[in-house]
UniProtKB/TrEMBL annotation:
A molecular function GO annotation: kinase activity
UniProt cross-references to Pfam families, sorted A to Z: PEP_mutase (PF13714)
Entry similarity comment: Belongs to the isocitrate lyase/PEP mutase superfamily.
Record keywords, A-Z: Kinase, Pyruvate, Transferase
CDD domains: ICL_PEPM
Highest taxon listed in the record's lineage: Eukaryota
Xref: InterPro entries: ICL/PEPM (IPR039556), Isocitrate_lyase_ph_CS (IPR018523), Pyrv/PenolPyrv_kinase-like_dom (IPR015813), Pyrv_kinase-like_dom_sf (IPR040442)
UniProt name for this protein: Pyruvate/Phosphoenolpyruvate kinase-like domain-containing protein
Length: 302
């Protein structure tokens, strides 16, 4: 009896991408529909935005209101829409001390998440592009990353550990670098300097952290200048995430449609967006195939 070799995990695939690709581009997705659209367009990596998750799942601002259960549940759904496409997911502060960080990493691993980032903000965190942030001391941050690393090893997992510091705004560049270097020593695979403000700052951070890959958080109209993936690569970055790539355009389109409905009594939805089009985007053809392979004919006339 022959047996097929199991495909590599999404985490293992992301590790290979880090070695082979010049730049990994991950659009931010905030729900299943936006993730399906990103997959339809053909992105080979996705990013679960924390701000988008809190906004869409809870209808709340990104102020540390989401729990591990909120985030893990959302990440599992997104990661498994197409398990061959790696998902990078926000894991905030790890949701507690070393034991909670360990629990977070284990749950994300079992949910099929390819990478997660853990930051050095206090537990009552906020979006990295809001003012008034506060961070824990460097030893506490290193303990968070160390707990994540030890858990990854204990599980035999390939999940990529991304260490994020928000200390640039609170303590300055040198302290932010000290924290990322301590995180790398504790086992981080990728460094994430939040809120980069200049090209010189970005270039120097990538130089000081080399050969460790550095991730750029490209939040439009936030603290960081608007850079393309090509520009980010030239500065030395290896990964770039666009958290607002779907939720920003969605807000404008949804609001415009609602205003039109309120004022004119019509939504203005294009004639090509039929119910079948919606269902096709979210996996209709796959559902038909599964039913047919099982001997069914339930969807023959869909």
């Amino acid at each position: 009896m022959s047996s097929k070799e199991a495909p590599p995990s999404a985490a293992a695939k992301l590790r290979q991408m880090l070695k082979k690709k010049d730049m990994i581009v991950a659009p931010g997705v905030y729900d299943g529909f936006s993730a399906r659209i990103a997959l339809e367009v053909g992105f080979d990596c996705l990013y679960m935005t924390g701000a988008g998750t809190v906004a869409s799942k809870l209808g709340q601002p990104d102020l540390g209101l989401a729990t591990l259960n909120d985030m893990r549940e959302h990440a599992e759904m997104l990661a498994n829409l197409d398990p061959s496409v790696p998902l990078i997911a926000d894991a905030d502060t790890g949701y507690g001390g070393p034991n909670m960080v360990a629990r977070t990493v284990a749950q994300y691993h079992r949910s099929g998440v390819a990478a997660l980032h853990i930051e050095d903000q206090i537990q009552t965190k906020r979006c990295g592009h809001l003012g008034g942030k506060a961070v824990v001391d460097v030893d506490t941050f290193a303990q968070r990353i160390g707990a994540a690393y030890q858990t990854r090893r204990r599980l035999g997992s390939d999940i990529v550990i991304i260490a994020r510091t928000d200390a640039l705004q609170t303590h300055g560049f040198d302290e932010a670098m000290r924290r990322l270097q301590a995180a790398v020593q504790a086992g981080a695979d990728v460094a994430f300097l939040e809120g980069v403000t200049t090209a010189d700052e970005a270039r120097e951070a990538c130089r000081l952290l080399a050969p460790v890959p550095v991730l750029l958080n490209m939040v439009e109209h936030g603290a960081t200048p608007s850079w393309t993936p090509a520009e980010a690569k030239a500065l030395g970055f290896k990964m770039i995430i666009f958290p607002f790539a779907s939720i920003g355009p969605a807000y404008k389109a949804i609001k415009d449609g609602f205003v039109k409905l309120k004022e004119e009594g019509r939504t203005g939805v294009g004639g090509d967006f039929t119910p079948k089009k919606l269902f096709t985007v979210v996996g209709l053809e796959q559902a038909i195939k599964v039913d047919a392979e099982a001997g069914g004919s339930l969807y023959d006339k869909v």
